[in-house]
């Protein structure tokens, strides 16, 4: 079997078009343009690329962006002050603080200060709680985007077995919650899981969010399974070139899976599209309009 490729880039672009139409409609009906504030502290090159891509998508979707690029030595108090200002700014519907923050800044403190109603990353404990008890709130962008990709190939997950490798608060745990909401039977695997390949082989839907280059091999994949590769790993090829790979050994797993996401061009663009979607949702809510 050769897997069908789940084209995250194309699906994300389609989502951008829909978001733009809805943003334009809100501007016309309520005079409100959804606004996203992005705070970047320091010069981490990967973070700079992520922020650039997010700002580009904001423009594509017809949203307003507010960028705060601060030097690495910015104090925690200054960052907290900016978050407080953005919390009060009615033109800002979403606040994103790019992680990782420099070591002298307590990320939990900064993320915890973001108004949960502007927490478009969905990292605030209140939004994590809302997701786990099934209340409406912001869902972290990567799991939300991954769930959309899964739905494109398999709209009904009822009774299917989903295995999520990784239990982080930003990917693994919320991903498992979403799959559970869709009536999948969910297993969360992690670094202490015994016989991980055997666990993965039972998955109808396998989500890898680990951060280990090409860890998932073909013989970990059940024939016909949906494989979602969240990992983004920068490796150096034997020729000395830099390359992005996922947590899944793509070429060999594509021989076994039913559908698979590539890296790049799979989950990554969906993460950004869902950030736009969360900002749009927030602006609609703030304006008292229905999406
Ligand atoms: P974390 O490092 O926070 O979590 C990694 C998880 O993988 C942990 O739960 C860890 O287990 C588990 N793990 C580590 N090694 C193994 C192993 N050998 N076997 C089984 N489980 C293991 O990472 P994130 O969740 O933040 O990110 C995961 C990946 O997704 C990274 O590559 C990251 O770059 C990528 N990412 C991609 C995004 C996108 O937009 N596409 C967005 C966010 C992340 P334990 O808890 O036991 O330590």
From TrEMBL:
Residues spanning the signal sequence: none
EC number(s) given by UniProt: 1.5.1.5, 3.5.4.9
Residue ranges of every copy of the Tetrahydrofolate dehydrogenase/cyclohydrolase NAD(P)-binding domain listed in the record: 140-285
Coiled-coil parts of chain: none
Binding positions (NADP(+)): 166-168, 232
GO biological process entries: L-histidine biosynthetic process; methionine biosynthetic process; purine nucleotide biosynthetic process; tetrahydrofolate interconversion
Gene3D superfamilies the record matches: Leucine Dehydrogenase, chain A, domain 1, NAD(P)-binding Rossmann-like Domain
Pathway: One-carbon metabolism; tetrahydrofolate interconversion
GO cellular component, one term: cytosol
Entry-linked InterPro entries: Aminoacid_DH-like_N_sf (IPR046346), NAD(P)-bd_dom_sf (IPR036291), THF_DH/CycHdrlase (IPR000672), THF_DH/CycHdrlase_cat_dom (IPR020630), THF_DH/CycHdrlase_CS (IPR020867), THF_DH/CycHdrlase_NAD-bd_dom (IPR020631)
Pfam families for the chain: THF_DHG_CYH (PF00763), THF_DHG_CYH_C (PF02882)
Alphabetic keyword roster: Amino-acid biosynthesis, Histidine biosynthesis, Hydrolase, Methionine biosynthesis, Multifunctional enzyme, NADP, One-carbon metabolism, Oxidoreductase, Purine biosynthesis
GO MF annotations, alphabetized: methenyltetrahydrofolate cyclohydrolase activity; methylenetetrahydrofolate dehydrogenase (NADP+) activity
Superkingdom as given in the UniProt entry: Bacteria
Ranges of residues in domain Tetrahydrofolate dehydrogenase/cyclohydrolase catalytic: 6-121
Catalytic activities: (6R)-5,10-methenyltetrahydrofolate + H2O = (6R)-10-formyltetrahydrofolate + H(+); (6R)-5,10-methylene-5,6,7,8-tetrahydrofolate + NADP(+) = (6R)-5,10-methenyltetrahydrofolate + NADPH
Complexes and interactors: Homodimer.
Purpose of the protein: Catalyzes the oxidation of 5,10-methylenetetrahydrofolate to 5,10-methenyltetrahydrofolate and then the hydrolysis of 5,10-methenyltetrahydrofolate to 10-formyltetrahydrofolate.
Recorded family membership: Belongs to the tetrahydrofolate dehydrogenase/cyclohydrolase family.
Listed PANTHER family: C-1-TETRAHYDROFOLATE SYNTHASE, CYTOPLASMIC (PTHR48099:SF5), C-1-TETRAHYDROFOLATE SYNTHASE, CYTOPLASMIC-RELATED (PTHR48099)
Protein name: Bifunctional protein FolD
């Amino acid at each position: 079997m050769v897997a069908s490729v789940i084209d995250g880039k194309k699906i994300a672009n389609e989502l951008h078009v829909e978001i733009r139409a809805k943003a334009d409609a809100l501007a016309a009906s309520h005079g409100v343009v959804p606004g996203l504030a992005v705070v970047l502290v320091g010069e981490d090159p990967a973070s700079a690329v992520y922020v650039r891509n997010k700002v580009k998508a904001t423009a594509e979707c017809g949203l307003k962006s507010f960028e705060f690029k601060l030097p690495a030595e910015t104090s925690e108090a200054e960052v907290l002050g900016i978050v407080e200002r953005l919390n009060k700014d009615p033109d800002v519907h979403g606040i994103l603080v790019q992680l990782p923050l420099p070591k002298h800044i307590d990320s939990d403190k900064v993320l915890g200060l973001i108004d949960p109603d502007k927490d478009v990353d969905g990292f605030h404990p209140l939004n994590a709680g809302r997701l786990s008890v099934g209340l409406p709130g912001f869902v972290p962008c990567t799991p939300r985007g991954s769930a959309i990709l899964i739905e494109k190939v398999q709209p009904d997950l009822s009774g299917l077995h989903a295995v999520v490798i990784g239990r982080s608060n930003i990917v693994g745990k919320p991903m498992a919650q979403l799959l559970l909401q869709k009536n999948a039977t969910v297993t969360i695997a992690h670094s202490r899981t015994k016989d991980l390949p055997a666990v993965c082989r039972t998955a109808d839907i396998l989500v890898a969010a680990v951060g280990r280059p090409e860890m998932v091999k073909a013989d970990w994949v059940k024939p016909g399974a949906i494989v979602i590769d969240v990992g983004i790993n920068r490796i150096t090829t034997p020729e000395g070139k830099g390359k992005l790979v996922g947590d899944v050994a793509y070429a060999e797993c594509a021989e076994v899976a039913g559908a698979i996401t590539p890296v790049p061009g799979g989950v990554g663009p969906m993460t950004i599209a869902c950030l736009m979607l969360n900002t749009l949702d927030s602006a609609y809510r703030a304006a008292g309009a229905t999406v």
